[in-house]
Design brief:
Helix content is 8%, strand content 38%. The chain is mainly β and 285 residues long. The protein has 2 domains: 11-85, Immunoglobulins (Immunoglobulin-like, Sandwich); 93-266, Glucose Permease (Domain IIA), CATH 2.70.70.
């Protein structure tokens, strides 16, 4: 069940400053997109949030995010705090069968490959934390669906593969025939395009604001590292590479190193021609 919780009437009002909430879904796995005025410093759980060139900042909520959290806004030396109440979610168990057994119980050599893949993924994601990357505004645009097809896996569910318990699902799955186009949901830069053991052919995009997205199990990858892509531009095609039981797209979204629910970013409009222009920044009267 999807929640859209308006925590404080879309406006955080402080005696010293006002931070506008542009979009939000304040539940575990959700997010808050904020608009910050010049001279304001915003801290989430004590850590300063980067602000993009257009004045946007982002907070992502973990799958098990605590209920009570603190957002702090400072102007010069004056700071005010506001409690953010994150709504809990319940997660089901999904039992996946017909998985290649080598991806469930990999041998020593395969585990070494998994470790190398994880290292490459972490290095790619670290690029999104560089100052020039964090300044991009692409994350503030409305997102479009990266592929067509019915949902076959949801964010947060516990997973068993061939009857064996494994980690929880860090994304959303769309089933579609092999060869179905996979497109960028918003603008970004390709940080990774790699044949991995578990995720198969994997593409990672950097959308600014420390937000990255991944597209896994692809049949074909049609982009290169460093390439700038536009919303709706094709990244590759649906496949069943890696730990997969059939053709589908696994779409994952990460704020920093926190997996968040990508489907929440589609809001009520999941069409392929949804608007993609970032909200205009309001000026101080």
């Amino acid at each position: 069940m999807r929640f859209l919780v308006v925590v404080f009437c879309l406006l955080l009002v402080f005696p010293v400053a006002a931070v506008e909430v542009v979009r939000q879904d304040v539940q575990q796995g959700g997010f808050m997109l904020l608009q910050v005025e010049d001279g304001e410093v915003v801290r989430w759980q004590g850590e300063v949030l980067p602000v993009s060139a257009g004045g946007f900042a982002l907070v992502g909520f973990d799958r098990k995010q605590p209920r009570n959290n603190v957002l702090e806004v400072c102007v010069e030396a004056v700071c005010e705090q506001r409690k953010i109440v994150v709504q809990p979610r319940t997660y089901k168990v999904q039992r996946v069968t017909r998985i290649p057994q080598k991806t469930v119980t990999p041998d020593k050599a395969q585990l070494a490959r998994v470790a190398a893949d994880n290292q490459a993924t972490a290095a790619a994601r670290a690029l999104a934390r560089k100052p020039e990357a964090r300044r991009q505004d692409w994350f503030a645009a409305n997102f479009v669906r990266p592929s067509v097809g019915p949902t076959t896996g949801v964010f947060g569910s516990a997973r068993t593969y061939n009857g064996q318990e494994r980690s929880w699902h860090k994304g959303h799955d769309f089933a579609a025939p092999t060869g179905t186009p996979v497109v960028a949901p918003t603008d970004g830069v390709v940080r990774l395009a790699r044949d991995t053991f578990m995720s198969g052919n994997l593409v990672m995009l950097d959308h600014g604001g420390e937000l990255t997205s991944v597209y896994a199990h692809l049949d074909r990858m049609q982009v290169k590292v460093g390439q700038r892509v536009r919303a709706g531009e094709q990244l590759g095609t649906v496949g069943t590479t890696g730990r997969s039981s059939g053709p589908h797209l696994h779409w994952g979204l990460y704020w920093r190193n926190v997996a968040i629910d990508p489907i929440l970013w589609l809001g009520q409009d999941s069409t392929m021609d949804a608007p993609r222009t970032p909200p205009s920044r309001k000026t101080t009267p």
